[in-house]
Amino acid sequence: MNYSIIEGVIKQTIGQSMNYETEPITFQIPSNGGYNYRFNECVDQIAQLIDRYFDTHVENVERINNLVDQEVVDAMRREVKMNELDNINGGSK
Asked: Of the spans 10-14, 16-20, 84-88, which averages the highest pLDDT?
């Protein structure tokens, strides 16, 4: 099985009758600004999302910061690897 924990939970709950009250949320995603600005906004919004879901107040965002950093780095590495594979034999497929 090659899916994340969240996907596993979703797969387990599909088909179950759930009567949860929900309310929509929106995110303000910056379309400009430097990497650091966008990174910090992302970390702050994740902290706010946790606060909203669990009625808490995240004060130290260091672990969220590390998580976002790891995910961004992994995504960039995957992209580089895919670009390298695409460029084998001059990019022909």
From this structure: 84-88
Which residue in 20, 41, 91, 34 sits closest to 49, CA to CA?
41
Q: Residue-wise over 68-81: b if at least 16 C-beta within 10 A, else e?
A: beeeeeeeeeeeee
pLDDT confidence of residue 4: 60
Put simply, whether the predicted model's pTM sits higher than 0.85 gets the answer no
Domain locations in the chain as residue ranges: 24-91
Rounded Cα gap, residues 55 and 2, in angstroms: 32
Say yes or no to pLDDT of 39 above 70.
yes
d(CA 45, CA 48): 5
SS3 assignment, position 90: helix
Enter the tokens of residue 82: 């895919």
H or E element at residue 82 = helix 62-86
Beta-strand ranges (E) seen in 1-93 are none
